């Protein structure tokens, strides 16, 4: 499997698709598929995929999303029109977790819909643009989504939904979104509110009162002008001239010319621009309101701090006038307590650092003493004579210097003899013992020598047999 990854080029983009079934981490090939990746990144920045469902699921094949309508027939590209396919020779649908663009069953018809493979799909190679791959353990979220229940039209019964798409690494920092995600959400909410109001008005218009029911006092009286009875006209065709009967008007439909169509479309675009400007102005006003509230909160906090400082200064200046002012707090203030804690903490830290330095100094002193001792022993070894001096003069010398020390150390023997450093431990070398031990420990076995010995014995036996045969033959000839 590793040889498949080696042939694929390196990625240069990364996004995280947050869904109701878990996150999906996708890395993008922005150099190989710039149009598809730029379209995907731009639509994600605009919040185009927020709230979109996975509308199609083919178990063991793909799971598809990207249509805001949820039908599989909608979706627009960032460029305003379908864009071309981007087929790369090193990008193939040879495993699960690969991300590609869905088209309209024709070449170069990519818009906003995309899919993730659930298994190897070689039939898609060369027909669809492959622009990303799922990375890490998030592939198991895709596998779980591929096991959902579906209906006869390959639609999940409980489809997962995209919450939002976070852009971790953008390979195209020059992208300028046409609309922000907040503005798009505001537009969608405005459309939903308008649709809801229209439905309510239609319901109220369709509601009719049943005037055939009897009214019992408290019921609302229906005005007479509201009751209208339509009667069917009675006519006799044999008494009426057909030329005098007006014909039923036929509704005519005239197709508008291109100039008027363009004007109507221009007005529509103008209304959309006005709505967008109104939404942006509303957002700016909200931002300004938040900024003003924040500045007011900052000023209020500054005023309270100044008042607190002033009150503390008045308390320190008017200690004598304790009858008119409240008593000062006994003991250290809260600030002094915090400062003392900080100083104590610094003291403990300094003590710990001092202890560390002390231990380090002790180790260095110990190493220095050990080095000096080693030098002294080496110097004594070089100065030591071949023959050791007799021990009796040493004893006499120690007796002359005194064996006991008076004072507090009375009864303790002093030992200031450093001659032990010159002593060397030597043993008599027994070469015979070493040779004997070597002979006992090492037994040389040469299989070739054994073979030669057997061959010699065999040749001797044959030689003996030949000699015996020759002797018997000689004896026979003599007879």
UniProtKB/TrEMBL annotation:
GO terms for cellular component: catalytic step 2 spliceosome. The keyword Nucleus applies. It holds the Pfam family Pro_isomerase. It is found in: Nucleus. Residues 343-353 have a biased composition (Low complexity). It is an enzyme of class 5 (isomerase). Residues 383-400, 455-466 have a biased composition (Basic and acidic residues). Residues 302-417, 438-479 are annotated as: Disordered. Its EC number is 5.2.1.8. Its main location: nucleus. GO terms for molecular function: peptidyl-prolyl cis-trans isomerase activity. Residues 18-167 form the PPIase cyclophilin-type domain. InterPro entries: Cyclophilin-like_dom_sf, Cyclophilin-type_PPIase_CS, Cyclophilin-type_PPIase_dom, Cyclophilin_A-like. It catalyses: [protein]-peptidylproline (omega=180) = [protein]-peptidylproline (omega=0). Keywords: Isomerase, mRNA processing, mRNA splicing, Nucleus, Rotamase, Spliceosome. Gene3D superfamilies: Cyclophilin-like. GO terms for biological process: protein folding; RNA splicing. PPIases accelerate the folding of proteins. It catalyzes the cis-trans isomerization of proline imidic peptide bonds in oligopeptides. Involved in pre-mRNA splicing. Associated with the spliceosome. Belongs to the cyclophilin-type PPIase family. CWC27 subfamily. This is Peptidyl-prolyl isomerase CWC27. It comes from Tremella mesenterica.
